[in-house]
Amino acid sequence: MDVQETTAACRDAFAELASPACIHDPYPFMRWLREHDPVHRAASGLFLLSRHADIYWALEATGDAFRGPAPGELARYFPRAATSLSLNLMASTIAMKDPPTHTRLRRLISRDFTMRQIDSLRPSIARIVAARLDGMAPALERGEAVDLHREFALALPMLVFAELFGMPQDDMFGLAAGIGAILEGLSPHASDAQLAAADAGSARVQAYFGDLIQRKRTDPRHDIVSMLVGAHDDDADTLSDVELISMLWGMLLGGFTTTAATIDHAVLAMLAYPEQRHWLQGEAVGVKAFVEEVLRCDAPAMFSATPRIAQRDIELGGVVIPKNADVRVLIAAGNRDPDAFADPDRFDPARFYGTSPGMSTDGKIMLSFGHGIHFCPGAQLARVELAESLPRILARFPTLALAEQPTREPSAFLRTFRALPVRLHAHAGG
């Protein structure tokens, strides 16, 4: 049975995205949705946009046509928020705030979390990458299979966050173990059990960061947490402990699992398209093009997790989205919209060669980091991690190959992995 036959009566795209067929390959369904129901109303009442033009407009119109939920509305959009720590933490993140609160928080974060600060991490990231590859080498050279997802893709962002936050590595590994459960609990269709598991993980993260903030206040070092709690001679405004914990919680959730998934997808692209490996063997502009195309082809977050509330009745594609409706965007569908990217299912880094980050040679925006006032503040860090790791993986293990098919997490929200077994092959690309 083809995609149209199986989805013609689709009442809930979120439920369909959680089906085994979509976990394996969501793009045929996304294509159907984009072509037949691009302004989809799910059974829960949520609206889901899947065309690039609509998603781009909705993200850019946040703060105008759309807003985050006001504190008094939280129970309406999150009925379980009264008893859920995770939902309350999400509601307090910068992604849920509107100007002027958003403007203030973004300024305070950007004051210390700068491009220069991120670029200063490059030597540390290169050192971490080399150490992880050294750790994998003996088993690979003995002909054994190694889980690249666990040994490298997950480990790299964890260790980078430990460096960035000024935390012991073991502490970060302990916190990171619960991130997947928190993310699943924040999905619109999470069960009560999933939300309870998320709250347990969030409580551990909240307690740890509360203690970390106090330690950095009394014994500051050269890390981002010390900078964020420190005084600034030219700016008396500071983040409160509650705001800072929310920010760190959001950074950990937004930049850990997603970066790991993108590393996994990038390695799979290296293996699937050996003719494209030359992008990783030359100048930085070619590496950047390869990274952007990976992010476009396989956005780690399928759709937006945070609500965008319509401030008025909005008509899109002949469908009226009523005022106060909760609207989400299907990022992965927009990234494969043929009206934005020619031949969108083809892996082609050339479409991003020599352009500004996230922009194609046709002037279209790759949506994986969002757009507008809520553009991901950790985008540059993720790009640096990918740019520092992919050429080194290829150079160190040019005959890397799949040992068996990777195993994906059964998540509608995040296109992530449980395992990515690899081994060295006698012939490159084998």
UniProtKB/TrEMBL annotation:
Keyword vocabulary terms for this entry: Heme, Iron, Metal-binding, Monooxygenase, Oxidoreductase
| Superkingdom as given in the UniProt entry | Bacteria
Cofactor(s) the protein needs: heme
Q: Does the keyword field hold tRNA-binding?
A: no
Pfam families referenced in this protein's UniProt entry, alphabetically: p450
Q: Which family does it belong to?
A: Belongs to the cytochrome P450 family.
Task: Tell me what this protein is called.
Answer: Cytochrome P450
Q: Which organism is it from?
A: Mesorhizobium onobrychidis
